[in-house]
Amino acid sequence: MPIAQNPLSVEVTLPREDVALLTVQGYLDVDTATEFQHHLANQLHHGRRHFLLDLSAVPFMDSSGMNIILRVYQEVREIPGSVHIIDPTPAVRRILDLTGVSITVPVSKSVDDALALVDGGAVPEPGAAGTSGQEEA
Q: Where is the STAS domain (predicted)?
């Protein structure tokens, strides 16, 4: 599948000086993950500590996209900072849940919910409001 059919669009906004909101549209896969990684690295370079990843317009994500999310999650934990996934599509949410990424990286329904977690500095327990709603087995 040519890249031109499913280009990746990443819009970066700054809700606050230390928070970057990346609104991603398109397929997040092996063909587009490097572009996504460049956007994240640029924001890290500019001192952002908290990353809100709006995946509501991502119809598909493969392991390349998940690896980028987990890599930035590990990097910002040392700062300390945080990564939050916002409103993933059902297909992407299923991948996040099946691989356990949604247990590691908080998933919120909205930017406001994610910002509340940033402000609180705590990561909710799985099953808490604004997260997956699933109980651990």
A: 17-118
